[in-house]
Amino acid sequence: KSANPQWREQFDFHYFSDRKDMLDIEVWRKDNKKHEELLGRCHVDITALPTKQTNCLELPLEKHPGSLLMLIAVAPCTGVSISDLCVCPLGDPNERQQISQRYCIKNSFRDIKDIGFLQVKVLKAVDLMAADFSGKSDPFCVLELGNDMLQTHTVYKNLNPEWNKVFTFPIKDIHDVLEVTVFDEDGDKPPDFLGKVAIPLLSV
């Protein structure tokens, strides 16, 4: 019930500088669970923003009244990585020793925000649902932790895909839940849901 809402939410996106990405933002109005209406959209060219500083932007909504006020910072990303199984970041014993030293009890108050990190090896899926008329699917896997999201590549025409990828996330809240979702890529259409599992970090 507001024409001037304040959300004060922060989202982290992993942006790789070799890509020419646009940040697309949409504002929606929800009357009830069934009815939603688009109130406007705007776009931000990430490559045009100065790095290592917070940019305050007032973005007018296209073809609609109103604007969005946002703070956007493009900063070097630490602690997040995607790699192949054969070059797993924790495979080196020396690196494991350095990490053990970094998170030992005597260093636990050196950086309160540095809780630790989570490394996930996404190997494969088995007996997925067929989403295409051909009796196959084009599955990819999405991992979400807090506001961090990473995903695998798509394996086409396969119900038993093998991804063999290693994902590393910095942990900001020990009470976060890792959500792993498998989707079927469907061209220009939204992907089809194939399944999901949620893993609380405290259960690891």
From TrEMBL:
One of the record's GO molecular function terms: calcium ion binding
Subcellular location: Membrane
Keyword Cell wall biogenesis/degradation carried by entry: no
GO biological process per UniProt: regulation of neurotransmitter secretion
Record domain C2: where: 1-59, 93-204
Primary localization: membrane
Pfam families with a match to the protein in the record: C2 (PF00168)
TM ranges: none
Listed GO CC annotations: synaptic vesicle membrane
Gene3D superfamilies reported in the protein's UniProt record: C2 domain
Membership in a protein family: Belongs to the MCTP family.
Protein name per UniProt: MCTP2 protein
Gene: Mctp2
